[in-house]
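User: I'll paste a sequence; please echo it back and then give the predicted structure.

Assistant: Echoing your sequence first, then the prediction.
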Amino acid sequence: MPAFDLFLSHNSADKPAVREIARALKERRYKPWLDADELTPGLSWQDLAEEAIETCRAAAVFVGPNGIGPWEHEELKTCLTQAVKRKIPVIPVLLPGAPKKPDLPLFLGERTWVDLRTTGITPAGLDLLVWGITGKKPRSRSRVQSSSPPGPPPLHNLPLYLRSLGDLFQGRGDELRRLADSLQGNGEPRALVQDPQALYGLGGIGKTRLAAEYAWRFGARYTAAFFLRAETPEVLQTGLASLAGMLDLPEKQAQSETIQSVLRWLRTNPGWLLILDNVDSREAERAVMETLPALTGGQILITSRLRNWPRSIQKQDLGTIPLEEARIFLLKRTDGERRTTDEDAVQAGLLAEELGGLPLALEQAGAYIAHTRLSFRAYRKVWAEEKARALDWHDESMGYPVSVAATWRTSFDRLHATAGTLLRLMAFLAPEPIPEAMFEAKKELVGEAARGFREETGQEDDADAIDEALAELESFSLLARGGSGTCTVHRVVQEVVQGRIPPERRKGWIETTLKIVNGHAPFAANDVRTWPVWNALRPHATRIVSLADETGAAGPVGRLMNQLAVYLNTRGLYREAEPLMRRALAIDEASFGNEHPDVAIDLNHLAQLLQDTNRLSEAEPLMRRALAIDEASFGQEHPNVAIRLNNLAALLQATNRLSEAEPLMRRALAIDEASFGKEHPKVAIRLNNLAQLLKATNRLSEAEPLMRRALALDEASFGNEHPKVAIRLNNLAQLLKATNRLSEAEPLMRQTLAIDEASFGNEHPDVAIDLSNLAQLLKATNRLSEAEPLMRRAVAIFERSLGADHPNTRTVQENLAFLLAKIEGAAGK
């Protein structure tokens, strides 16, 4: 077997640190023997280890927080034998966290140690280990000038697990340049007396990675670079004191005296960079702010989840990385280690989107895929089915010290009850902007949920207002607040928060979230005036009705599902609306029985969708059943009965049964005039529909006054820019066109188109109808070149929204063909 440079004897509990040292030695072109990398399955590990020791140039015996392991004692015997027989060096290495007075065997205690307890695993510590292997003392690590090549300064304690990622450092190029420009300017460190800088953002967003990458790439421009953890005041003080050993300063008996010695060195040796990492609590922030006045002579870079730093601190917010950069990272991170397929590029993009561009989640996924040799598709299945396990998985090969799930636990535990409650509720919503107003509107439900949260966690009553709780979540970077009364929670944070909820309580949290969303949802979902609310609420309503339906959560799921479906149907999103309508109908039938008025509402909505999508034979029995239910429930003269009569009559007209439709329409008109008076908007609907039927039976002189009366009623009720007004204008314009009053019809058609585009957007089926109608009028007045683009646009909208086989689509396709033929004929003359 080939000779090795160094045998690594260690307690298996300390393997992550030992593996890091092995990796660093390999980068220096040395060959370490580490059991996890070299043991052959099926062979005696003791025999293999003894063979390795007999061929190694040196042996290192690692002592960490867990002491010397039981199998390590056996290796020590062989090491001692080789030390005597071949004169190989046996080097005791004290790992970070090892006790101040380690319990070493006698023969090790007599040897010179490599002490990594205070400095961590740094290049300086590795130099000593290499000295033990080679017998050659490394050259002095004196400070370098700013003209040195890119890289860290020789005097530094930057953690090796955070060494530069090179081309794997994806998606942060702009942020790195911004940081370098702020600190370096034209390539030289700026004024030594400079405001400290803070990189802040969500845990796992890559703050520490960005700070370390800057230090590794630009550190040579500094005299030294120091990396200190600062998550608590005590850790900060310990870290400052630990620099004494690195700076060859005498350690005092009192820690405070050692720290003062370090601060004096920093003041008298300017040009250094100091990274204070993980300043994530208010106590840690206060400790840093109290220490900053004494840290003069260099530049200070803080990483923190806190966003509300004093104005004396320059701040740089970090968000997620672009999805394309995330996709490239996943491909590079797993190159040569994943199971490759033809769809890797696509699957990597889908995974990047599912992980929301969160660097830590991307690294964890990449490490898991490499570790288990999975394909991207296979990992996505793991992610979909076992998110909790995937989020908690960790391996020492990751470039992060903890898993995704562990990253936020401390932040979660610091939250007051109301803030923790809001975060749980938002965990069941979509990773889209969340309207904050819905929590304020249902604060009694939030308060009830907060009481349950305090009961579960043992917290005291905080009685925080909603806005204060949202501000607390924002201060810890657990959500981002927009300027329009919305906030956003990252999708991976949502998954971790859900994973922390006790399984027996999950259903209750879903029900509470459902009630809050339902309370914020306007009932008249088919009224465009409610759409500003519905547009923002749509992704959250979709998510919570899905969760509530899956878990069998009680509450108004049928009502919210139905109203969401009506909104989608009115928007022309039929494929999304139909399954919701059918599910809402099934829920209400199971809850109330087949003859309940709520069931009639569900039947009516589903029948309307079926009619809009040209499934008239399916729609008719549902409409007749809805009419029968309401007649039995409310009597023959109730307004609900008028609605059912009107809809059934419209379907009968669509199937050319005009003689059956007319009496139903006249009966619906009479009911609404008696119920609401002759000036009510509902009367306008009945007038319009009856006028359309009269027009279809060539009774134009009877139809026109009804149309004009309907238009006047809706303009008075809704204003001149409402979609209902557009319907009336369109119908009147068609009648004017039919009576050859084209110059009167055209401005009404253009007004109709403008209203619908403003109300529904440019891709709605109603807009396509308006375009087609206007194009037909232009064709009739021989303005063919103006008509063609309008007709083409109408065809494209119908093909996308209704499909190529819908009658509306076929009609406009035929109209376009006739128009093109007329254009071609005109050109040939």
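Confidence is low (pLDDT under 50) at residues 141-149. Residues 807-828 form the longest helix (22 residues).
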